[in-house]
What we know:
The complex is a heterodimer. Chain A is an alpha/beta fold. Chain A has helices spanning 7-13, 48-63, 79-90, 104-113, 138-152, 167-183, 200-212, 226-234, 263-275, 303-318, 345-349, and strands at residues 2-5, 33-38, 67-73, 95-98, 118-122, 131-134, 157-162, 188-193, 217-220, 238-243, 254-260, 282-283, 292-294, 328-329, 335-337, 358-359. Chain B has one domain: ABC transporter involved in vitamin B12 uptake, BtuC (Orthogonal Bundle). Chain B has helices at residues 6-32, 40-58, 61-85, 90-109, 132-138, 142-160, 162-172, 174-179, 184-210, 222-232, 237-259, 268-289. In chain B, helix 2 (40-58) packs parallel to helix 4 (90-109) and helix 2 packs across helix 9.
Amino acid sequence: MAIFTRRSVLKIGGASLALPLLGQAVLAQDGPLKIGFVNVGPKDDNGWTFGHWTGAKALEAEFGDKIEITFVETVPEGPDCERVLRELAQQGNKIIFATSFGFGDYVIKVAREFPDVIFEHATGYQRSDNVGTYNARFHEGRAVMGTLAGHLSKTNTIGYIGSFPIPEVVMGINAFTLAARKINPDIKVNVVMLSSWHDPAKEADAARALIDQGADILVQHTDGPAALQVAEERGIVGGFGQGADMSAFAPKSHLSAIIDVWAPHYIQVVNDVMAGTWVSDDSWPGIAAGEVVIGPYNEKIPADVVAAAEAVKNGIVDGTLNPFTGPIVDNAGTERVAAGAVVDDAGLWAMDWYVEGVNA
Amino acid sequence: MNMDLVVPIIITLIGASTPILIAALGELVVEKSGVLNLGVEGMMLIGAVVAFAVTYTTGNPWLGILLAAAASAAASMIFAFLTLSLSANQVATGLALTIFGTGFSALFGQAYTGKPISIFRSIFPEALATHPLWRLVFGHSPLVYFSLLLVVAVWWFLKKTRAGLILRAVGENDLSAHSIGYSVIGVRYAAVAFGGAMAGIGGSCFPLLLTPQWAERLTAGRGWIALALVVFAAWRPFRLFGGAYLFGLVMTIELYTKASGGTGGVPSEFWAALPYLATIAVLVLISLRRSGHSAAPACLGKPFLPTN
């Protein structure tokens, strides 16, 4: 697999050098199916891009010589990504995975110029004949974490560090809180929004602020382990890994983790393209498809609590449990979902309210 | 908000303020010599990654801080050579230094992502810091005491020493200083190196004091806040101290208010805007008090070209 990081040339020299990235264009030919990945971060970010890197490696393991992967790192979400996408297409890549939300407009634009190339855009919402979108139901993992928190919290106060109040984050907070309050109706979840995906010092300070005010379990929906490290230092009950197993940072406090696994989707797409059956659609699988994986449980968690969490996980897998089953009352006291009803996907993506028990 | 929270809030706000204060004091000295170095953010990132790498490898945070200072000072020498010896544009070169520092730290830090170290704790025995009030005195990392000493040291140097007087003369009127025999370029090299070293130590606060990890862009823009604070403080060390702590206070209060589970009826967007509102308020107050002339060093940002 070829890894191109523009950092080595670009950032040392200065930002605006328009270096040709991948050499000259190569005509499409028989041979391995060429696949490109465009990523917003470095592959060893221990989080988001690492997940896609792992997915790309799984493709190599599955298809071997039949494919050839180009993995481009640290591409900013701006006009530069359009150039990278175009060069990958000109180089004869037949499938291009763009793995960050902000690439969307450029993917649609470049895809119009290359109707023979298939584009797949992670966490996006814009599709066309040769552009599909994919995501994962991370909120299903939040329901499992919420079950653990409902059992383990002694102060009944959970600290939740978020990035922005966008639907993806809001549905995670709600799924977590619903599951925790099902176990312990006294649980309250205090949310701190940081207006940033990546400001580790502020994440750590937010964790300190939450613990100083009674939180004994922390949850974060930002990309790093900063909050977990504070949890470890303060010796509270614990926290959860986000996107990856982060137990190296907090061996005593790392209760479990939600791990992103993209391999099933990538293998599916490549199989479909090879068979000529690929069509543009929106793929949004969760725990059942193996795209959202629950990390190992900390050994300090009692067996019955682990069993309760596993029961929720298995319920989600076999479809008997939907984390958003009514009755659901929002934190202003209005009933949002009637008893027995569930929130559909459109409702999840439009979620701009918090459930009862959330202080935000 | 109850009184038990006052001590934790103060401790958190000191942590948030310290890296900005150290880096801004360095930049203050640089600007007093007439040089504008916009590379603070980049130098802080270099300091942060070097401090992490050395502490992770050797287990010795003191060595980490020392080498962070040396590495950032070395990076600042690139800037000094271009702007002082070759008279390149200071604004453009400073921005390039920030871009370089961001890229270099990301590249160098690749091997250190996903690895933990421990926080550089207080050097005093724990028994001294058991009572909350004693914690305020004895409970901090050495970096915090260093930052407070640095405020006094920079003030004393600029106001009370002959070398400080020469540095200010170079910043206010480089041609006059040159004509009476002082090495303008030499003084400015020294000032830029000091600024680089302080930016490096400020950067080292991130892995050693705030969040014991390395991640790309760990400083998340604090270098720019340090730069703004120098102007905000009208190039005065004690005012800079006040500004850094005011900034830390506003940010910490925001987090503690949100974390309390109620915003006191105030929307969270207001808390997010508060640091900027505070900046505007203080700038207005300073302009009202100022008597006509600008507080900026007269030669700030101008290349020294004695032959022209």
